[in-house]
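EI: anyone free to look at a 216-residue chain?
SC: sure, send it
EI:
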Amino acid sequence: MGAVKTKRMPRAVREQQMLDAAVRIFGRRGYMAASMDEIAELAGVSKPLVYLYLNSKEDLFTACIRREAAALAEAVHAGARPELPADRQLWEGLRAFFAHTAEHPDAWSVLHLQARTHGEPFAAEVAAMREGIVAFVTRLIAVAAREAHRDPDLPDREVAGLAEALVGAAESLAAWANTTPHITAQQAAVTLMNFAWSGLSNLMQNHPWTPPPDTT
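SC: here you go
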């Protein structure tokens, strides 16, 4: 009897295993401290095979960033279903964001910490994802204002500023929630939704907070 041949794993599947291992190592050890030996061992492959598939440590890290950025953006868009009212879309999008970052803490570390602190081209990859999410949130806020008032006096700069602030707050809150015991994705989403919605309501009702007169 001849030897039984094992089925060869498709390249795409093997590559995803390598990326899974790399995200875990990069997220926990950082880009500089992570080694290709560790990544290969965790993925169950040889180091030369990692280089064959992904060329270099820099290319491997870039591939991790792109995959995890796409997954996060997809989760947010999938949560904010277009058939929902705008306020529900914003809520579901926030909840999806916090759920995804909580379920994938190593990926969030790669995106929020590692990619941003090691310069180009890594920071540019994350910036592109962030710009897409900010644009999406900007649209939701504008639609919510239209739904609440037929002709809201809400300048574009206010909408854009609120979207930037909301995304920035979500990023910081996710980092805090992932390192603070007993904080759930639902709790983080409620906290930010209350903060954002009360600010948006004040703007739509022409009751913005104004700074006191300069007394200096």
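EI: Confidence is low (pLDDT under 50) at residues 1-6.
SC: 👍
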